[in-house]
Amino acid sequence: MAREPREGFSSPTRWGCGAGLVVGIPIFLLFFVADTLGTCRPVDNCRTGILPWVLAPSTVIALLVFFAMRLLVGWLQRCNRRD
Fold first, then answer.
1. Is residue 72 scored above 90 in pLDDT?
2. Which of 9, 58, 59, 75 could be bridged to 28 by S-S, CB 3.0 to 4.6 A?
3. Using CA atoms, how far apart are residues 51 and 60, in angstroms rounded to an integer?
């Protein structure tokens, strides 16, 4: 009997996406507020900008959480099937 293709994303992907959003959005907002409040004097050469100091680190953290949660849920599902 042939298996029917499932529609939608797998369970690990859904859990990973949710965890990435739950962790990524507050970290983005925290970095954004820190970057906004961390202004310096006009005579200094400041390192500011949303892309290198806010968006890139929060995206990397959210992706790490996504893949970690995806691996963890997949591993738990495989362990549960063996029992």
1. yes
2. 58
3. 12
